[in-house]
Amino acid sequence: MSTATSHLRSDAAENRGRILAVARDLFAERGLDVQMATIARRAGVGVATLYRRFPTKESLVNEVFADQFAACVATMDAAVADSDPWRGLTGVIEQIAEMQAADRGFSAVFLASFPTTVEFQREHARALRGIELLIERAKQAGQLRPDFVPADLTLVLMANNGIVADTPEAALATSKRLVAYLLDSFRAEHARPLPPPATVALADVLPIASCRTSPRANP
Questions:
Q1: Which parts of the sequence belong to the HTH tetR-type domain (predicted)?
Q2: Whether this model's pTM surpasses 0.85
């Protein structure tokens, strides 16, 4: 390999890494509405260079969240394997809520059902089955109120996603407080008659592709 070729490949790898780092920060700060041109400009590359590396925004999002995706699948597997159904279920809910509080991009990806790769859809369905299994086990163990339904978890995620705070630290603290209140109300010993379940789908908001908890940048 010539020195020139080696240098070009090194530059390409450096550009790719910089694009991913910038996209990760901007998605966390602003969500997925960030323009590809904005990412290119912040990364110091041309738009054409960005599209050579990532032909579509979806391909860029897939790459940005790849590691987090794998980590979250592992978290779900560990929860299902936990001998304590309540600990497994609440641990998953707490981690999902923490991810929402930390990263705007995280919420945007999944509230928009994005990305749509075959692998994502397969693992998404697997995560849903895991949540449903945890719910059923916690009920059978007498830990979770018997009238709990998956849509109630959707309400938790929707409420948590609406948190507005001045700093990442405040958002995380608020999220933890909110989720603690809600989880306590899910305990079987607190079960009192409730209105009918909400008509919202867990599949629309359940995130599984990102488990990172890096702080959200200020707008």
A1: 13-72
A2: no
- Distances in Å between the Cα of 213 and the Cα atoms of 12, 141, 142, 196 are 28, 31, 32, 34
Run means of pLDDT, 10 residues per run, the chain, 219 residues: 53 89 87 90 94 91 77 82 95 86 67 60 77 94 93 86 84 94 91 76 48 36
Q: Which residue has the tokens 């989880």?
A: 183
| DSSP symbol at 188 | G
Residue 83, CA distances (Å) to 91, 95, 97, 134, 161 in order: 13, 18, 22, 11, 30
Find the domain containing 22 and state its range: 3-56
pLDDT at 42: 95
Dist CA 45 CA 64 (whole Å): 17
- The CATH number that applies at residue 100 is 1.10.357
**Domain assignment present for 214:** no
Please count the structural domains in the chain: 2
Q: What is the CATH number of the domain that holds 11?
A: 1.10.10.60
